Amino acid sequence: AAYKLDLSPDMKRRRIHPTFNANLLRMYIPNDDVKFPGRHWEHILDLGTDPKEKSVLEVIGHAKRNSQWGFYTRWSDGFITEEPLENVRQTQPFEDY
C-alpha cells in the first residue's frame, strides 16, 4: 500500500515526491525535550531555508570505508558530518589537518 502525504511548500519546491510506501511510514512520536533538549525537525531535515552559506570550521578526524577516505568535518552551524575527500580537499581546515 502507498500513501500520498500533504507536503509543505518547502518540500514541494525541493521536488520531494509525496507518495510513500506504507513500510516507510512510522507513527509520529514527539521529541522528549528532557532527554534530547534542543532537537528540532529543522536540524534533522534541512530544507535550505537558511540564507547563510555554511563553511567548514575544522576537520577533526578521518576514516577509510570501502577504499574511500571520509573526513569528519565540523561546520559553521555546529554540525559534524563525514565528507568525502573531494568535498574538503580545497579548504583551509583540511590543509591545517
Describe the structure.
By secondary structure, this protein is α+β, with helices and mostly antiparallel strands. The chain folds into two domains: about 1-50, no CATH class; about 50-95, OB fold (Dihydrolipoamide Acetyltransferase, E2P) (Beta Barrel). About 20% of the residues lie in helices and about 30% in strands. A three-stranded antiparallel β-sheet has the order 3-4-5. Strands 1-2 form a two-stranded antiparallel ribbon. Strand 4 (about 70-75) and strand 5 (about 80-85) form a beta hairpin. It starts with a strand and ends with a helix. The mean pLDDT is about 85.
The gist of it:
The chain is built from four helices and five strands; from the N terminus they run E-H-E-H-E-E-E-H-H. It has helices at 9-13, 41-44, 85-88, 92-96, and strands at 2-4, 19-21, 56-65, 68-75, 80-84.
pLDDT averaged over residues: 84
Order of strands across the main sheet: 3-4-5
Give me the oligomer status: single chain
SSE pattern, N- to C-terminal = EHEHEEEHH
Q: What is the percent of helical residues?
A: 10-25%
List keywords for this structure.
97 residues; alpha+beta; OB fold (Dihydrolipoamide Acetyltransferase, E2P); 30% strand
